[in-house]
């Protein structure tokens, strides 16, 4: 448990540090400059053809971000997969499988072990209704998926913005409206994987939690995470609205990139909580749940897939879905029609 506590501390500490700029960050600027130079060089080598870019036989839509930490990519991927299916596509989803033990490409089913294939891919397999494959190399993973699923006519790459070996037709960046880009610096001085100018080169910027009525740029779109009915992890048919827990304090556990977003959602539902932030992709054990000392526990669906085998009756799950800007899907469909067959990496 000591190592887990240290990871929790380190994760929270880094996020708090990247929200500001101090003398300590200034000392890291030379390293950030080297990181930026390396990233720019790598991208240029792909653009110039010195590093191999593989184009698939079907369009590729990439959903990613330019900052470290959770922004809401997984709910967006699920929502897009459902909407694209309604529009007549047959999507397949590829992911790196963070939090699992993933090397060669492998299929993910709703019954897969999240400790082997990752928590997000299992959630994607359960909620999207699409084939989901994970693997260390995106190109080989997508090719393996297409070989097994010839009906798939569109690949959605989850968190693959910086994986330029896979040619893409549409790029989407998800941004957290609460944290934005922290102190605006590249790693390790800040949370950025790429500079903010990268947003000008993508097809859509989806802002999670943008205030209604606030002005947007032409290629910016809004997204909100919605959900207010909980279900019992041990007995999913058992549902409960927040008022059922009136007068009780729940232990809120969140092993996601931005736990505070989940905690704020619970508070907005009127729930009294004891927040317990955990590192992203935290590997839950029965000891984690025992720490609640008999109180009801509430967690995200991403965390719940790792606890289903040992959770008791006290564990509840709050599922959320992404409410998308109505302009987004028509915009993406137009981009897919226009750009398929052109190099965008």
Automatic annotation (TrEMBL):
Record EC number: 2.7.1.130
List of residues binding ATP: 67-74
Pfam family, any one: LpxK
Functional pathway: Glycolipid biosynthesis; lipid IV(A) biosynthesis; lipid IV(A) from (3R)-3-hydroxytetradecanoyl-[acyl-carrier-protein] and UDP-N-acetyl-alpha-D-glucosamine: step 6/6
The protein, known as: Tetraacyldisaccharide 4'-kinase
Lineage, uppermost ranks: Bacteria, Pseudomonadati, Pseudomonadota, Betaproteobacteria, Burkholderiales
Keywords, sorted A to Z: ATP-binding, Kinase, Lipid A biosynthesis, Lipid biosynthesis, Lipid metabolism, Membrane, Nucleotide-binding, Transferase, Transmembrane, Transmembrane helix
SUPFAM superfamilies in the record: P-loop containing nucleoside triphosphate hydrolases
Reactions accelerated catalytically: a lipid A disaccharide + ATP = a lipid IVA + ADP + H(+)
InterPro entries named among the record's database cross-references: LpxK, P-loop_NTPase
Superkingdom of source: Bacteria
Signal peptide: none
Function: Transfers the gamma-phosphate of ATP to the 4'-position of a tetraacyldisaccharide 1-phosphate intermediate (termed DS-1-P) to form tetraacyldisaccharide 1,4'-bis-phosphate (lipid IVA).
Gene that this polypeptide is encoded by: lpxK
Example of a GO MF term: lipid-A 4'-kinase activity
Family per similarity comment: Belongs to the LpxK family.
Residue ranges of the TM segments: 23-41
